[in-house]
Amino acid sequence: MIIKKVKYIVPYDIAYYKHENRSFALSAKAMVDSILPSLLQNGCMVEIISPTWTSNTKGFYKYRKTEITKNLTLTLCSSFGAKNKLVKGARIAYTLSWLIFYLMFSIKKDDIVIYYHAMNTSRIVNTIVKMKKARFICEIAEVYADVSGREAQRKKEFKMFNNADAYIFQTELLNKKINTLNKPYAIIYGTYQVEEDRGVKFDDDKIHVVYAGIFDPRKGGALAAAAAEFLPKNYHVHIIGFGSNDDKSMLLKKIDEISKITKATVTYDGLLRDEEYIQFLQKCHIGLSTQNPDAEYNDTSFPSKILSYMANGLRVVTVRIKAIETSAIGDKVYYYEKQNPKDIAEAIMSIDFNEPYDSRKIIKKLDKQFVKEIEALLKV
User: Fold this and answer.
1) Do 228 and 200 meet the contact criterion of CB atoms below 8 Å apart?
2) Domain count for the chain
3) Helix (H, G, I), strand (E, B), or coil: what is residue 352?
């Protein structure tokens, strides 16, 4: 088998260096962790190039190249702590400058470049990959202009999309929207890394419901807490994740208000990563995906948390949107129709735990299909 060299450009890090607090989205890391096994199974030598900086306010962290497993390495630039806006800006500029020089000297003509689409690095990657004439696969989880509504941003995104030789999409709808020239593509909805049962559960005879993700009001995260108002006392709603200071303050205020009027329990349980995150999910029974169904990005963006929930054995309650309905797991989830706390609570209570359900088996089937799609993509 001929070993293919892959440069995978995406903000990423591993648990061993969590004290460095590198800036990356947990959803993106989960997606990458799902794709990597398929690349390795197809005989690729993968270098993850991570343009990410520390979120700490002090300290200096050295450039490092880490061997994660056989044929898989991770490369990060050095970074430094920052307290004020000026130094924070310099920290980002330093990382982007490092990315330019590193890509210029590391990418070769025969390499395959997989790029996790991000607005702050798209121009850099697009320009250098074209210059090096490397094969370019663009991984697209969502069109950011669909969230921001800025048309100038949309033009920049689609210019980069059109330069790709192939794609990895998160939904069938994204393929229809972007891949107008019918270039090779593969589809992955989210994490296909099935997590073995850790044998952990809350020991209180309650039904535990979890919302894991961003607190951004545009994506409906606060509704998870509000739904607790309409649940009986044998339910516990957990909120875990991240957001701005303002969003977090609003969430904590909402939890305090709901706790005073509901018989159910609702708590904020912090930002969890890696094994802590996995074990917490597995202690729960139901995962919530409560984003706004009217948002334009729902036409193309698949909620990656759904697959994270299913990979850990949870049933899923989600808003009914086209990206989910048209997917391979569209008939494996529980829907609510209206974006209000009462409807969400009713969907939660409608779940019959006596019905047979094996979400891990569903994910394993999707994973086998994706490995075959990646194999075809790499051969083109």
Assistant:
1) no
2) 2
3) coil
pTM for the model stands at 0.75
Range of the domain at 293: 207-361
Q: Tell whether 378 is covered by a domain.
A: no
User: In degrees, to the nearest 5, what angle opens at C-alpha 126 toward C-alphas 39 and 25?
Assistant: 60
- What 3-state class would DSSP assign to 188? coil
Concatenated DSSP letters of 9-51: E-----GGGGGG-B---HHHHHHHHHHHHHHHHTTEEEEEEE-
Provide the token pair at 148. 């921001």
In a domain? residue 74: yes
Q: Is residue 367 part of a domain?
A: no
pLDDT digits (tens, 9 = 90+) for 177-200: 999 999 999 999 877 889 999 999
Asked whether residue 371 is domain-assigned, the answer is no
Clarify whether residues 120 and 211 are in a common domain: no
CA atoms of 359 and 63, how far apart (whole Å) = 40
Q: Which tens digit of pLDDT belongs to each residue from 279-310?
A: 999 999 999 998 777 766 666 678 888 988 99
